[in-house]
């Protein structure tokens, strides 16, 4: 069942087009890989789906509602509750400890400080970095930071996680470890993942792959048995 849908998305930066009419669905609990060469529009598509950017034309539907017409405040609230966002370099707050970083979405949603910390430590434990609860990002390795960032992105048990090159700054082994845990946790709680990557080995973790080229969906690689974009199977 599709819960997130893009219909004919168009987005440009000045005179440079990034998306040229992209249509796709993301099903509940599905891991969807968005692949393609650098500059093809992958990150722009993810940002439009997550409500970070508004498309110039087209629609983003979240459970049947026009997400692209919502106010910035409403879209921000959605990203604190039902959406999670994970970037390539984690973007942890340098002044906060690991536990404080992970607890931040809970605190913003009104959870009490003690409960938020306890939940944050539980999530750090799930990603194998509970011992870093009181450590700040500057004292962590890149892999440790990304584990903390992944825990923060999932701490609210979002319905959809948007992951933009989440292992791009990590070595192969660390990247595989982080992604394996991410996928396992997502499966457990039925979180959909929109996974932007240019690496075939990372895309292999997905249930389905959509390739962008020059701002459009590239259908040339789809065989007769491949899922059709737009939700029909």
Automatic annotation (TrEMBL):
Alphabetical list of SMART domains matching this protein: AAA
GO (cellular component) term, any one: plasma membrane
Keywords of the record: ATP-binding, Nucleotide-binding, Transport
Keyword Transport: yes
Molecular function, one GO term: transmembrane transporter activity
Keyword Repressor part of the UniProt annotation: no
SUPFAM superfamilies assigned to the protein according to its UniProt record, in alphabetical order: P-loop containing nucleoside triphosphate hydrolases (SSF52540)
PROSITE patterns according to UniProt: ABC_TRANSPORTER_2 (PS50893)
Coiled-coil stretches noted in the UniProt entry, renumbered to this chain: none
ABC transporter domain sequence ranges: 4-233
Record-given protein name: Putative ABC transport system ATP-binding protein
Lineage of source species: Bacteria, Bacillati, Actinomycetota, Actinomycetes, Micromonosporales
């Amino acid at each position: 069942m599709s819960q997130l849908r893009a219909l004919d998305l168009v987005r440009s930066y000045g005179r440079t087009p990034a998306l040229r009419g992209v249509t796709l669905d993301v099903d509940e609990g599905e891991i969807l890989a968005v692949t393609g060469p650098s500059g093809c529009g992958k990150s722009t598509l993810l940002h439009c789906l997550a409500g970070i950017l508004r498309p110039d034309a087209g629609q983003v539907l979240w459970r049947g509602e026009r997400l692209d017409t919502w106010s910035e405040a409403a879209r921000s609230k959605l990203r604190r509750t039902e959406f999670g966002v994970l970037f390539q370099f984690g973007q942890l707050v340098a002044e906060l400890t690991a536990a404080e970083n992970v607890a931040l979405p809970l605190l913003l949603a009104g959870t009490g400080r003690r409960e938020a910390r306890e939940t944050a430590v539980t999530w750090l434990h799930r990603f194998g970095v509970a011992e870093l609860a009181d450590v700040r990002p500057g004292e962590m390795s890149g892999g440790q930071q990304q584990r903390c960032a992944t825990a923060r992105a999932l701490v609210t048990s979002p319905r959809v996680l948007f992951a933009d090159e989440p292992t791009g700054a990590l070595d192969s082994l660390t990247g595989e470890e982080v992604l394996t845990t991410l996928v396992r946790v997502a499966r457990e709680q039925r979180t959909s993942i929109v996974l932007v990557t240019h690496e075939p080995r990372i895309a292999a973790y997905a249930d389905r792959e959509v390739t962008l080229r020059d701002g459009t969906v590239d259908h040339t690689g789809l065989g007769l048995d491949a899922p059709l974009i737009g939700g029909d199977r």
